[in-house]
Design a protein that fits this description.
binds magnesium ion; Isopropylmalate Dehydrogenase; binds 3-isopropylmalic acid; 10-stranded mixed β-sheet
């Protein structure tokens, strides 16, 4: 089969980790007999440099016309980059928000899984880690605080900033359905995270999630307040299967979840619309401090590539092959700096890509 992928190398370490992921995908193509065709677009700081905006309409159209999108990272050093001397809607991250909205990517799936091999890099105590953990965060991605009305102006002589948090029942229902669907393929538990003791949007969230749950009698639904969830993630991570939550809470909780897997460099993510179309990107940022040094961990992006194979192309066997190749490289002791521990082999970004590609096999 032929697949058309839009690639967005972006800024910072983005180009390096996307390059390694394409290397792995090309090897999958070789071994399994597929052809992946890539079309590159600019987004983020590099697009600002070239076009004065973080995402052009043409770039968005190219992405729309493809089968899936692979993204590295966008953005630079906030305190130190000219990309941030402009209005917020012209900064690199605005490109990311625009493509999420423009492609209607409302469902952000972020798996957090502890590889046995990386247990040493996990900051939690052994007795807390127990048998490890394997959770998926289902984050709403096109609503809430990120997309509500916002402004900063003087009110009665006092500078005042306003951000609004809005959700309607349709937006809540469609992300809840995605969470329950995924739970049906896993351990059949959904923990819906909100702040219903304070926020109206959370109270509506709870009500709609409960309605959706009626269609999934086999799935156990629990509600958890977000502050409690932040605590439970480091106290008893094994209790989570699917976490369902709104945009901002999901942003924060997914960083926390990634850290307990050992490194944010391990966490992949898929952002999907109603169909099988998706944008696949690591959960981490552009790490400008190590950009261009061949030090970045490409695993989160490579695992995002595996999610692309599985969710957009229905290539389960191929996705398994990528995930197993990653596991094997870790089991053999190779580590980038972020997950390095004593006695292991220190690998560069491109070496990790080579090693993973070499281990792609058809079973
Ligand atoms: C993420 C990132 C983005 C977000 C930023 C870069 C706008 O933190 O994907 O989690 O907040 O969604
Ligand atoms: Mg984030």
């Amino acid at each position: 089969m032929n697949y058309h992928i839009t690639t967005i190398p972006g800024d910072g370490i983005g180009p390096e980790i996307v390059r390694e992921t394409c290397k792995v995908l090309n090897q999958v193509g070789q071994v399994f007999g597929h052809e992946f065709h890539y079309k590159e677009i600019l987004m983020g700081g590099c697009s600002i440099d070239a076009h004065g905006v973080p995402l052009t309409d043409e770039a968005l159209e190219t992405a729309k016309g493809s089968d899936a999108v692979l993204l590295g990272a966008v953005g630079g050093d906030v305190g130190n980059s000219r990309w941030y001397d402009v209005a917020p809607n012209l900064r690199p991250e605005a490109g990311l928000l625009a493509i999420r909205k423009g492609l209607n990517l409302f469902a952000n799936i972020r798996p957090a899984y502890l590889y046995e091999e990386l247990a040493q890099a996990c900051p939690l105590k052994k007795e807390i880690i127990g048998d490890g953990f394997d959770m998926v965060i289902m984050r709403e991605l096109t609503g809430g605080l990120y997309f509500g009305e916002r402004y900063t102006r003087e009110v009665d002589g006092v500078m005042t900033a306003v951000d609004t948090l809005t959700y309607n029942e349709k937006e809540i229902r469609r992300i809840a359905v995605k969470a329950f669907d995924i739970a049906m393929k896993r351990r059949k538990s959904v923990i819906s995270v909100d702040k219903a003791n304070v926020l109206d949007s959370s109270r509506l969230w709870r009500k709609v999630v409960e309605e959706v749950a009626k269609d999934y009698p086999q799935v156990k639904l629990t509600h958890m307040l977000v502050d409690n969830c932040a605590m439970q993630l480091v106290m008893n991570p094994g209790q989570f299967d699917v976490i369902l939550t709104e945009n901002m809470f999901g942003d924060i909780l997914s960083d926390e979840a990634s850290m307990i897997t050992g490194s944010i460099g391990m966490l992949s993510s898929a952002s999907m619309n109603e169909s099988k179309f998706g944008l696949y990107e690591p959960s981490h940022g552009s790490a400008p401090d190590i950009a261009g040094k061949n030090l970045a961990n490409p695993i989160a992006t490579i695992l995002s590539g595996a999610m692309m194979l599985r969710y957009s192309f229905d290539l389960d066997q191929e996705a398994d092959a990528v995930e197993q190749a990653v596991q094997q490289v870790l089991a053999e002791g190779y580590r980038t700096g972020d997950i390095y521990s004593q006695g292991r082999a220190r690998g560069s970004c491109s070496q990790m890509g080579d090693l993973i590609a070499e281990r792609i096999v058809k079973k």
